[in-house]
Specification:
single chain; mainly alpha; 57% helix
């Protein structure tokens, strides 16, 4: 019993390659033609196995019965062609041609249509794995919730002030030097220089008076 979960999928047979299908069809058609329709049941048997439809199995039985009847009719005719009547020869010819045309046409049409419904063939060497069934818990999913968009409120950003680095010592402001002390020094030097020049000028004037 499988409960409420999904039924396990049956493994699907991969489609043969186009070259394989063409080779099989050519062999079966040639076998049917060369045997004058007596081996046409081989093509119908392959078709019934591939499609697995009751109609194809029924047609296989019909073809087998026609082949048996044709074989019995050929065995009942005289070996000498001159002793065979024209009606018997015409009837046998129509029987063979109808069996050949019917088997070959229906076999090719039904098989090509069957493989076209399967889709493209799988690449060579690629395994065909059926999709794993979903667990029971994932089958009952909650309905998707609809989220209504909320209006965004633009809040003013606080202005960031640069914070002082605690690891760097603050540099003290430069202390201005007292300007009057410098002026006094310059004035004293100018006085000394003027006294020195005065003395020089006095000495020069005394030397000229002598």
């Amino acid at each position: 019993m499988h409960g409420y979960g999904p039924m396990p999928q049956q493994p699907t047979t991969p489609r043969p390659s186009p070259a394989t299908l063409t080779t099989v069809r050519v062999i079966l058609v040639a076998l049917t033609v060369l045997s004058c329709g007596l081996l046409g049941w081989a093509a119908m048997l392959r078709l019934a196995i591939v499609t697995r439809r009751p109609r194809d199995w029924f047609l296989l039985v019909v073809v087998v019965a026609l082949n048996i009847g044709l074989f019995a009719f050929i065995m009942a005719t005289p070996d000498d062609p001159d002793q065979m009547s024209d009606a018997a020869a015409l009837f046998m010819m129509l029987w063979i041609l109808g069996l050949l045309a019917g088997v070959i046409t229906y076999y090719l049409y039904a098989e090509i249509r069957h493989y076209n419904t399967l889709g493209a063939p799988a690449p060579y060497g690629a395994p065909m794995h059926p999709a794993p069934p979903l667990p029971y818990q994932q089958q009952h999913l909650a309905p998707p919730q609809q989220h209504q968009p909320q209006p965004q409120q633009h809040q003013p950003r606080p202005q960031s002030h640069p914070q002082p680095n605690p690891y760097t010592a603050p540099t003290p402001p430069p202390t201005p030097k007292p300007a009057p002390q410098r002026l006094d020094q310059v004035r004293a030097e100018l006085d000394e220089l003027s006294d020195y020049l005065r003395k020089e000028s006095n000495g020069n004037s005394e030397g000229e008076g002598r």
